Amino acid sequence: MNILVYLVPVALTLGFVGLIAFVWSLRSGQFDDLDGAASRVLFDDDLDKKNS
Amino acid sequence: MSIDVDLSGFVRQTDDGARGIDFAIDGMTCAACIVEIEQAMKKIPGVEKARVNYSNSRLALGWKDDALDPALAVDQLRRMGYVAHPFELAEAESRDAEHAKYLLRCLAVAGFAGMNVMLLSVSVWAGNISDITPETRDMFHWLSALIALPAAAFSGRPFFTSALAALKRHALNMDVPISLGILLALGMSLVETANHQHNAYFDSALMLIFFLLCGRYLEQMMRQRTRAVAGNIAALRSPLAARVNADGSVTQVPTARIVAGDVVLVRPGERIPVDGSVVSGSSEIDESIVTGETRQCAIGEGAEVFSGTLNFSGALKVRARAVGSGGFLDEIERLLENAASARSHYVGLAERASKIYAPVVHVTAAATLAGWLIAGASAHDSIVTAIAVLIITCPCALALAVPAVHVTASGALFRAGVLLNGGHAIERLADADTVVFDKTGTLTLPEPRVANAHDLPQHLVECAARLARSSRHPLARALAQERPMGAPYDGAREEAGAGVMADVDGMEARLGSAAFCGLDVAAMAQALDEGASAICYRRGNETAVFRIRQTLRPDAVATVEALKRRGYAIEIISGDSAAATQAIGDALGISSCTGGAKPADKVARLETLKAEGRKALMVGDGFNDAPALAAAYVSLSPVSAADVAQASADAVFLGENLAPVAHALELSRVARNLMRQNLWIAVIYNSVAVPLAISGHVTPLIAALAMSGSSLIVTANALRAGAGADKDRAPHQPHARASENVRSNAGAVA
Fold it and tell me: Of B308, B608, B620, B725, which is the most exposed, with the fewest CB atoms less than 10 Å away?
């Protein structure tokens, strides 16, 4: 059962990283405009300069 | 006379020189508008940041120092076909947004901790029936404690603070048993862990917090979305006012920035933006939004005018009124105060349930403890059993039962075009058995319409409507609406007080008064019935008379019919003349009509209904309806209503149709039934779980299954409130355009 000594911390750390990532995205306003974000991904106005 | 727009009051500033302003935007119909607007804004020199929020139809602009006059942006947007209005985040809305984020953070922490603790707990449960060693079990329990205690301390705060506040008031709310359950579960688990026992309840405590926070967060989101739409509508409704400065120049400022004593200029065809008194000028105004009367009245210097009234013929200068300067407004305010204090403090279903629930639970737990002690069990076992009772009865399902329905029902109402002001409105709407309508602006459309457009040759209507587009006169605007896409004629001239003329295909066309068009004035006056006004049209030998009058909302007859069929008693009570009220009553088949009612009469009628034991829904839009709206058991206002009426109403409905009133009543009844069902589900759950707990058979596994199971059932049941909402819903409504985006979003939450 010694494997638990590092498996449990690894599991907790991964979960904690996810939590931090979520709180960060919340703070940086990524949840403020869910409808807009869903549509923005389809716009390719950022490609114009490079491709055309 | 040049007119500047002054938006400086809305600009946000930070110390490092960055400036920003927010606009509410009307006219965003699809996602492509995002790019269009943002790119156009970024082309304006000086703009550093332009970000459209598509969910709530807002635009945030940012620039440095004095590099930009935001009026440029408004101008650019207008040329692109959008209406932009400067917007200041209301304190209530930003507080709501903050609170929603706070709840989401708590929810995230509870979710993270709950999943990890559950991982450890499942291992222990599996180990307990197989071969886990006591050392491993202890380690898992201590690890759980290490995660659960700080997580619960962080994410349980919304409940702890609310429970503490209630206890300080010597009261009990639902959060008291919740907090007690959480704290006892954690405390007992800690003691059991220290004593190397088999079972700990860390997972139960976190799961409770997680489920309850889900409910709270969704409720908060729903409220926030409604607020956002209401905020946009308020910003778009409140037009710019032309303030006359000390040096005689005129500046366009947002109405919210007008203070008492300012003088504003009101041109013909505009709505008066503030309450005040006329300093100079004379005109005829349509005061129907104030008194319900459709007749225009002549006013001159010194007359008291109200915001929202429509100025017809002459330019007016109006001095904004200081608070409490007497007159009609004070009477309304006094009536409003009385109504507000007299309104029975409605106790919601959830509060009533929790008032019974909390004492029963605590007494049961105490009785369990006493019972086991008397039966000869050890003190430790008795206490553990009593605590298990408290944990399992922790009112998770009960706390979700009503809010979950609120969320789905207000989402469904939202899609039907009804915005709720208050939380209890749904329950009170469901109780209503009588509907009292105001006439002007409620049963009828707020703006007059052409009554005989369909009886006239269509090419003639087309031509007249395009001519009307060049006029500022309110009646001409009604005519222009007949052809919303009609472009004005080039070279059309308006002759003040007479009409418009233009050259149409080589022949002069005129639109205006009878004399202006060369028609027989006396014969015209005879042909008109009461309450209608006329616009005449002549082009060569072709003549026409357009009768313009208040018309019923398009589906008023059908809606009133449907309400009657469902057994509601229906009345009309209006400030307009008895004859005009009776005419509308006849058209709708409503026998109980009262005309000429003063605001106090309306309140008195509602008091009478209350005394008869009836629960009245008041639907009204006018200034004069505000006290009645506040005094009624529950009230609704159209979105075109006077501000004070909207503020007094429990809910606001959007669009031109009356159908939302019927939808609101129907949906609220469905919602109330679901709330009751949910409360019964919670009771049934308890009646199964509590005997188990009292007899000492509850293990953490059973607690976890029972609590999450009941919460999920209650939530799933609540979702049914949104299911029936979309059938026979009103078609697309032009007024609701600003809110369409947010609506679809609300659907996602619901």
Answer: B608
